[in-house]
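Input.
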Amino acid sequence: MDSEERMIKMAYIAGALDGDGSFCLGKSYQVQAPSPQYRPIIRLSSSKKEMVEFLKEEFGGNIIYRKPYTSKDGIVRKENWSWAVYGLTRCPSIIEEVLPYLHVRKERAEFLLDYIKNNPFKRGSAKLSFDILQNREDAYLKMKRFNEKPFQGKISNIKRKNSESKLFWSYLAGLLDTDGSFSVGKHHLKSRVSPTYSQYISLSMIDTRGLNYILENCAFGFIKLYKATTTVNGFCYRWALHARDEVIFVLENVLPYLRTKKGNAEILLDFCKNKRNVKACRNGIPQEELDFRENCYKALKKFNYGISKPTLIDSEFQKMDNEGEGESHAERLNELAP
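Output.
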């Protein structure tokens, strides 16, 4: 593998880690050890087995499977796979490779790498001094704060452009494979006989640094603030686009790098390119065209385990379809909450 291909792959992995990954210190007590052990951990959890298998093939490590279960709040959680690498031997090389391409978790990855370099592993059962233990405990608590309190930033007000960098599109593919969604929304409007079908790409995040990187390198899509009761802050940002030409452009750029949601993206691209404009559609869409749109809609629902993900997308974009026609991206960005 040449250096450029390796860099593109590391940019993708950085996007995936910025989406569903974590860098942390684990603390454990061994029966025969006089002092607690602090182990570096790089981890990623996913509902897609292909993602964790890809990471294990690339870096080694372990995979743990968790069956579907019902959480305390009554929500049914899907089956889940977790990939993890532990220790001071393998973690440094992984961090050094992905660090140049991280944006959301760059600071905590740098901190963990510094910890590893300043706390070399020593064999034996000798008790650690109070100062060494205090330094390691401080580092452990700081890593916990990194993961418990997300970065509080703002959406950048910058002049946007479409990047030609393969590294950016590979990074975006990693984000979309973990936290993104490729959807066809189905709406029933009172003024029309047939349902309407719309194409969507969306990505929801709490940390604004990854979203700002997208805005710097992609001129399409807009960002809005949404309530999210499952987050620490009670809200999240969502980058989304639904104009057909814009969706096609983004799909064609990320498709070569997608792994777990490549099938979703291919269906959505087929929908965008082959959906025919129908004149006087208030009187109904021809059956052949209606069947094509419905099949794409159902195929994407099947990819999402039978769930149109999420229903909020359909309702919010239907509102934009009805109220925001002709609105520019700049005007939409100006609506952002501070």
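The beta strands are 21-28, 37-46, 62-66, 69-70, 76-77, 80-86, 180-187, 196-205, 222-227, 235-241.
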